[in-house]
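Re: your question from the hallway

Yes, I did run it. Sequences:
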Amino acid sequence: MTKPNTGELDPQDNAASEVRSYAIGFIVSLLLTVGAFAAVLADLPSTWAIICICIAALLQIITHLRNFLHLSFSGGQSREDLLLVLFSVSLLAIMAGGTWYIMSDLGGRMHDGGEAGHAAHAMPDR
Amino acid sequence: MSNNSNLYPGLNLGDGHGEAHEQAESTVFGFWVFLMSDLIIFGILFASYASYLDPVGMAGGPGPQDLFDIKSVAIQTGFLLLGGVAYGGVSLAMKYEHGRARVIGWLLVCAALGAGFLFFEVKDFITQAGKGGTPQVSGWLSSYWTLVGLHGVHVFSGILWILAMVAQIAIRGLDEVLKVRLSMLGVFWHFLDLVWVGIFSFVFLVPLA
Amino acid sequence: MSGQTSPIFGNLNWNVTPYTDLLRDVNSSTIVGAGAASVLVLGAIAGVAFLTYMRWWGPLYRNWLTSPDAKKIGVMYIVLALVMLARGIIEGFVIRAHQATALGTLTAQESGLVAPDHFAQLFSTHGTIMIFFVAMPLLIGLINFVLPQQLGARDMAFPVLNQVSLGLTAAGAALVMVSLLIGKFGTGGWTMYPPYTGKIFSPGEGVDYWLWAILISGMGSTLTGMNFAVTIFKERAPGMHMMRMPLFCWTSLCVAIMLIYAMPALTVSSLMLVLDRYADFHFFTNASGGNMMNYANIFWMFGHPEVYILILPAFGVFSEISSTFSGKRLYGYTSLVIASMSIAVISFTVWLHHFFTMGQSAGVNIAFGIATMIIGIPTGVKIYDWMATMWRGRVRITAPIVYLTGFFLLFVIGGLSGIILANPSIDYQVHNSTFLVAHFHNVIIPGVLYGMLAGIHYWFPKAFGFRLCETWGRRTALLFVGGFIFTFMPLYVLGLMGMPRRSPTFQNPDYMPWMYIAAVGAVLMLCALASLFWTFWTSYRNRLSLAVPGGDPWNGSTLEWSSPAPVPEWSFPRIPQVTARDDWGEAKRAGDPWKAPERYCDIEMPANTAHGLLIAAAATGLGFAMVWHIWWLAILSFLAIPGLIALRGLRVIEPKIITAAEVEEADQRFRQQVASLAPATRADEETERNRGVPDISEFAG
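Structure:
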């Protein structure tokens, strides 16, 4: 664990930049949240709305990691933290993606008699 | 971010805090590892929620359109986001030694905002149960209650943890050990925000879109 | 357990013990059940009486149960595992004995030693115990003991948390043990697939015992994984780069990663089943939109990495012993590191091969089948590396090497049968047959069991100061090899003949010759178990002639062999400065490895605490209360856990200080002893001349 040489930073200067970091994080998160909700409330086609929500969520997660959890994305930090997050995300993608892949395939074969049946049976209770 | 001696996730105490900063390196890193494990739990629940989100999974019970109140979700999101930012107050007050009272004050603000979030969440749950949306009705509702409920339980334990920290600070004073614990709590509190971003986006908004 | 729930005793009543069954109907099945319960009760009474007679309660509490020392925690894990191993092997024997008598006829279909329901409990507990309470504690224990010493660390990163993990594992084991006496265990196999294990088909406490044992011990394992990972990343001795770590540390890191990311899946699947059973949720029910296939999906997301959690530490052990007992450097260090890490990552992408026949389309099966075959490649690389390590070495046929040879021969067969099963179309033919049973025993026994027993034999002197008897060690190893061959090779044949696994009875007389052979094998396994315990006992009796105070009985090359045996609590008088891979071997090559440090300083060790013990008690109470629906106790125990943590948080905890003078005294005594002992050559390794100081002129590796 080599610690990078920080040099002498003026603590007050540092504090101001940290407050700014939280403020930026808050404003960006707020805007992204409002955007996501607006996408639902506006009369967008649902595919577009879902794409907007996903992008907003992704950006907001990055903002949180960066501004609130202070995970730096450009060296500086001991790299283990970032690697850990990336590794976790990739395993999560394997697990969640795999689950979705397997279960939707099974669901398709169990309930609807094939891919084509899926649309025909949509929302029978409504 | 000009401070480039970040050793662990969350706002670092910095070299000025000597031993606590070093101890925090392994402790907060360990806690972050644990949260990654927690993240997998949420991830699998998200995937299950998605796989139950179809007419078969809803089994003729009420669906997202019938149950979700987008306004309340927005209020909850606001509470949690503000709560997350408020923890920045705790971290900064601790790092720049603004004194015990400031730290405790910010902690209580966090706890209050968390409690506000929980109030609206529980209110939603009660309304949904009233509309026939109990978890016993369908696979989809089971997964919805489990996923969102588990996050709620996390927030609740976060509040308990905050209160425990307030008690500890009051009794022990803000010593090195507590600084490390507060750093851990901060990582936890921000992590809950992160999960909530996933929840409001994929649990609430996507089915409504 | 119908009837109403009492507010005080929950569903408990006098009819839940196996003795009631025995009184109701005396037959071989109830006699076996009551016998097992009696062994448990008498064993517990004998244990308590023995401890009281020897006045060992105090030392046990002070030196072991409250110790946060990773080495002691490791030993306790292994003791727990060996106790559970005894039960698991005996159950395996009863399973074999039952099937050897289970040939029914078309008119009288049911036959055999135990009743079908009892048989189902046997294979369920056997699997649960062997995976969760034998294999896991064995490997976690071994890692706990070895890892900090190999890394040159004082202790784990979080010693008290380590104690809590041990407590949670022990709590889970206790629940499984209690199910022998109070109530019944589940009958759904070690995987407990719903909907069979849902409330409708399996009312009663059986599945709940499994669920709570798994949830509680699983929590412990997650925390352990986190502890290992942080220890490896943050607590290495100065100079110990990642690529200087001994291979056992690398495999421990893989285990840690897999524990961290795989255990949550088990937690989720068990938690969902708990909600289904206790709160009428519909995750896995047949009705109301539940989907039981999701259980298999989530469970095996844990289950497959788990297989590699089990096997990788054994690979680490084999890497160490193949090098040490051949007197050579490990061949292909980098390739072994890469292979281990690839296994750890690829193991997350193959889980579907456990349910090829569940009904997904061919494309999905093929994707996972290919991933499964790919994971065979790094494993193959490792086998070649170990063989190349031994090639032209001066191999001493010690007990670990007997295990290693048995592993070479048998594990390859098991691995190849796995590659066969990885082909979905073949899997459709042999799935759910005893072919599969033979396959996974064929990888787990030669892999995990041999590896862990070899590791115990190898590191035993470090923990207790004397070697294990080589003669009995080799006999044990050979009995385990022979027992394995006789027990499980017939199951391959039976599987290809079409015999389903877990059959309580069958009507095909052609199975019988193979059944008898397997039963003979089970007898050999029992002998191996007895021989294992005899090895410990006879070595203990001859501990003076087997003593190795010099601490390096095998002429090893990793850091842990530099300290005395038994190793002191602080492991190293000063944290070593590492300059090379296999630093101790490097010091030997440079001459005079036993140099005293220039000066000594105070050592801070974590203070003893009963925290882990109390949490374990609360967790056991919680599990038991939930199984029997004793709500007040459940609430009380549940609140006790955060309460205990909060109380500990309020106190300022001072570490235990070991003064420099004390360390210096002990260390100087050790150095003088080493100087006074005659170095033993490798030829003398098994004789009394081996006092733990090797002839370093012989050190080539």
